[in-house]
Specification:
CATH superfamily of the largest domain: Butyryl-CoA Dehydrogenase, subunit A, domain 3
Helix content: 40-55%
CATH class of the largest domain: Mainly Alpha
Shape: globular
Bound molecules: flavin-adenine dinucleotide
CATH architecture of the largest domain: Up-down Bundle
Number of strands: 15
Strand order of the largest sheet: 13-12-11-14-15
Length: 505
């Protein structure tokens, strides 16, 4: 269906990717699924075609395309007919290298981003651990600074490209006693001494993709492999989750689309009681419902992508698109399998694999429950975009500046809005004098001190002007966060802050 977001260049790119997937990848699906591995050569081929650096900068070999080229690519990955292949490629391009692209040093970009774009290296993003997945702040893998190195110990599990990849963008605690504000991202080579594959995991689906449990034992990594700033990893991960969720949404839509196309052809060929299956109204109406749902999912995904591209608040919309797209693929694969009758259950037909592979979508990149949690929290606890009229009418920052606004926080504190809440915030305001403040909340009281004291539950960094704008209600905090103007180590604490100090009040 025509889309206002897609130009003729996007559609030409779609044709190219589809041709490649159908001619160069899908014919090998059974062999690669059986082998449980993807030949490295195919990454090289995709690198040469510019398929692995679609939105990455040209100076590292990327194409610097807009986000809709990425959406097209992710939808068309389904034509590989392997969820495992699609996952391996999307993790390589949009997850493992995303942080290196956004926050990595020049050295990291040269060593890991450029070779990932060319297909010479394959990367993994390693966050989940045996004891924790959804609750990222509770990871336990630790990195201890020793001279010019980090020494890493811990375990990761369910890691896509974990066994056969070349490097991991690894989430670890740089202060083992701390919470979210102690997480850092460090790039670790797969062949570094002390890294081992504890097991290649056997899975219900995604058979061609490698998913591994990993152990890290006294792994020594140069300090320069730190991505961005120490202790800012949680913020980086949360920021990148929006893109990760868009990937899940587009892949869900693409696989549902292919499922329905396959089912329609089958129903046109297959006859029962002397007529094609398409002539049974109950089955034809199911096709109509699925086509309608797919179109709705596609347009929601494109809308969320557009918001992201425009730098507008999109956390809620990306979460909705991921929830809808992944649940859609699961639902559609089930209905389509049914339309194939007994053949739907047989491995020689594509539906069994589509059904198995779609099942992973509502678990990876944030489960459906976590998507609902994010959407509902944004609805009930604030963070919704400030309507333009309200923004225009917002008063000038109190006292004309950030420092005055900070000093007024204890008076503005609304204990009744956050009963029982206690937290320590470290606020760092670039350009303000003084720049560092500690805000302590507990037992219904709020106090403010200059400087950074004690262990922080939440670290907040921004420039003074942004603080004053948010505080006065002139700027939406979610928009500032998504635009990278605000760095927050713990989003849950920040949501409480917004309730307690009600910007613009
Ligand atoms: C095939 C596959 C590939 C993967 N690839 C990667 C990868 O490359 N890198 C990586 O880091 N991870 C990867 N993962 C891990 C994936 O991101 C996690 O499985 C997922 O985030 C859920 O975490 P968990 O498995 O620990 O479940 P848990 O967090 O233990 O959750 C268990 C259940 O409780 C629910 N739940 C948890 N918290 C809440 C809440 N607050 N409210 C309501 N319900 C809740 C969950 O939705 C789920 O249903 C992969 C997983 C799979 C299956």
């Amino acid at each position: 269906m025509h889309s206002v977001y897609m130009t003729s260049d996007h559609e030409e790119f779609r044709r190219q990717v589809r041709r490649f997937m159908e001619n160069e990848v899908a014919p090998h699906a059974e062999a690669w699924e059986e082998a449980g591995a993807i030949p490295r050569e195919i990454f090289k081929q995709m690198g040469q075609l510019g398929f692995l650096g679609i939105t990455h900068p040209e100076e590292y070999g990327g194409s610097e395309g807009d986000i809709f080229f990425a959406m097209v690519f992710l939808e068309e990955l389904a034509r590989s007919r392997m969820g495992g292949f699609s996952a391996a490629v999307s993790v390589q391009q949009f997850m493992a290298t995303a942080h290196i692209h956004q926050q990595g040093s020049e050295e990291l970009k040269q060593n890991y981003l450029a070779p990932s774009i060319s297909g010479d290296k394959v990367g993994a993003l390693a966050i989940t651990e045996p004891d924790t997945g959804s609750d990222v702040a509770s990871i336990r893998t630790k990195a201890v600074r020793e001279g010019d190195n980090w020494v890493i110990n811990g375990a990761k599990t369910f890691i896509t490209n974990g066994a056969d990849g070349n490097f991991f963008t690894l989430a670890c605690k740089t202060n083992p006693e701390g919470g979210a504000g102690s997480i850092s991202l460090i790039v670790v080579d797969r062949d570094a001494p002390g890294v081992s594959v504890a097991q290649r995991l056997k899975k219900m689906g995604w058979h061609s993709g490698d998913t591994a449990e990993l152990a890290f034992e006294d792994v020594v990594v140069p300090h320069s492999n730190l991505v961005g700033q120490e202790n800012m990893g949680f913020y980086y991960i949360m920021e990148a989750f929006a893109l990760e969720r868009l990937c899940g949404a587009a892949m869900g839509v693409g696989s549902a689309q292919l499922c329905v196309e396959e089912t329609l052809s089958y129903m046109q060929e297959r006859t029962a009681f002397g007529r094609p299956l398409t002539r049974f109204q109950v089955l034809a109406h199911r096709l109509a419902d699925m086509a309608t749902d797919i179109e709705a999912g596609r347009q929601l995904t494109y809308h969320a992508a557009w918001l992201m591209q425009e730098g507008r608040p999109c956390v809620s919309e990306c979460s909705m698109a991921k929830l809808y797209g992944s649940e859609l693929a699961k639902r559609v694969s089930d209905v389509c399998l049914q339309a194939f009758g007994g053949f739907g259950f047989m491995e020689e037909y594509p539906m069994a694999r589509f059904y198995r592979d779609a099942r992973a979508g509502t678990i990876v990149a944030g489960t459906s429950e976590i998507m609902r949690e994010i959407i509902s929290r944004l609805m009930t606890e604030g963070g919704q975009p400030v309507p333009p009229k309200q923004r225009e009418a917002a008063p000038e920052p109190k006292g004309g500046g950030a420092v005055e606004a900070i000093k007024a926080l204890p008076e503005r504190f609304q204990a009744e809005a956050v009963p029982g809440w206690s937290a320590v915030f470290h606020l760092e305001l670039e350009d303000a004098q003084p720049a560092q403040w500690t805000l302590s909340i507990g037992e219904g009281q709020c106090s403010l001190n200059e400087g950074l004291t004690g262990e922080a539950d939440c670290l907040v960094q921004m420039d003074a002007a942004t603080f004053a704008e948010i505080d006065s209600g002139a700027t939406d905090p979610q928009a500032a966060f998504m635009a990278g103007k605000v760095k927050v180590s713990d989003l849950a604490q920040m949501l409480n802050y917004l309730k307690a100090f009600a910007p613009g009040s």
